[in-house]
Design goal:
The chain is α+β, with helices and mostly antiparallel strands. The chain has three domains: 50 residues, Uridine Diphospho-n-acetylenolpyruvylglucosamine Reductase, domain 2, CATH 3.30.43; 113 residues, Uridine Diphospho-n-acetylenolpyruvylglucosamine Reductase, domain 3; 98 residues, CO dehydrogenase flavoprotein, C-terminal domain (Enolase-like, domain 1), CATH 3.30.390. 34% of the residues lie in helices and 24% in strands. It contains eleven helices and 14 strands. A five-stranded antiparallel β-sheet has the order 4-5-10-6-7. Strand 2, helix 2 and strand 3 form a beta-alpha-beta unit. Helix 3 packs antiparallel against helix 4 and helix 10 packs across helix 11.
């Protein structure tokens, strides 16, 4: 149960959502946008956030699109991870989404909610980083489109009053050879020790990671090291790990030394698999 009262709004268009955000902010309501809501509910129950108003985006048509259009895969921010997996338009994204949570949670977690969340893992962003997807973002100045690499750095970098409407991914990435590995300390449900996703394009392997550092990431320096076939793979992996963008996580899921061990083995599995394809 959420231990405080708040106003609830469910706009039917992008424009109305933005206008309500502006109005509510002027009223001192500290509004937040709501897509799937699982993380918002968790933070609210622990008194970590105290919004005076919630703007539910799930009735906005653009936020519920899941279709191919002009050689682009368009996914609305309010499409659930379960719906994504069932439709399977982008197999790497579908497999990553399936591993993000159990079925019950995936019915509620949305693509936008996962990408824009605050928890460390946010695994659904990894395939989009690899596919150089573009993000459609709405705000007070209208709708803009930007490369994911311009607006996602450790987390989504949205201006005040903005929200993610859709992701756009070029068809050429959807059927590339890929791997997805999620390693947990125990069992098949829960947060990862290490998640590694990878695509192979033009004989180059591109990788992205979650659970390794305190944010999901893709690194050009890591990919450059892994693709240097002139040196043995164990050396490539050591060089790649030397280019991590932040310290290894050290938490209840696993210690930093254990994470490093698992990461090395997982990268080796990913490279071996894709080098044969």
């Amino acid at each position: 149960m959420i231990p405080f009262d708040f106003d609830y709004y469910k706009p039917s268009s992008v424009q109305i959502a933005v206008e309500w955000f502006q109005f509510l902010q002027k009223q001192g309501k500290n509004p937040i946008y709501y897509a799937g809501g699982t993380e918002i509910i968790t933070w609210a129950r622990t008194n970590s956030i105290h919004p005076g108003a919630v703007i539910d985006l799930k009735s906005i048509p653009e936020c519920n699109v899941l279709e191919m259009r002009n050689d682009e895969l368009i996914i609305g921010a309010c499409v659930s991870l379960s719906a994504l997996s069932a439709a399977n338009p982008f197999p790497l994204l579908s497999e990553t989404a399936q591993g993000a949570a159990d079925q019950t949670a995936r019915n509620q977690i949305t693509l936008g909610g996962n990408i824009c969340g605050k928890i460390y893992y946010r695994e659904a962003v990894l395939p989009l980083l690899l596919a150089n997807s573009r993000m459609v973002i709405a705000g007070m100045n209208g709708i803009r489109e930007a490369s994911i690499h311009q607006v996602f750095s450790q987390q989504m970098r949205l201006d005040n009053g903005e929200f993610l409407v859709q992701t756009l991914t070029d068809r050429s990435y959807l059927s590339l050879p890929f791997v997805h590995f999620k390693k947990r300390q125990i069992g098949y449900i829960g947060y990862p020790l290490v998640t590694v996703t990878a695509l192979k394009k033009n004989n180059q392997i591109h990788t992205a990671y979650s659970g390794v550092c305190s944010f999901p990431f893709r690194s050009a320096q890591i990919d450059q090291a892994l693709n240097d076939s002139s040196i043995p793979l164990p050396v490539r992996i050591e060089q790649a790990i030397g280019n991590l963008p932040a310290p290894l996580l050290n938490n209840a899921e696993g210690s930093a030394p254990y994470r490093k061990f698992v990461l090395k083995q997982t990268i080796a599995d990913a490279v071996h698999t894709l080098e044969r394809r």
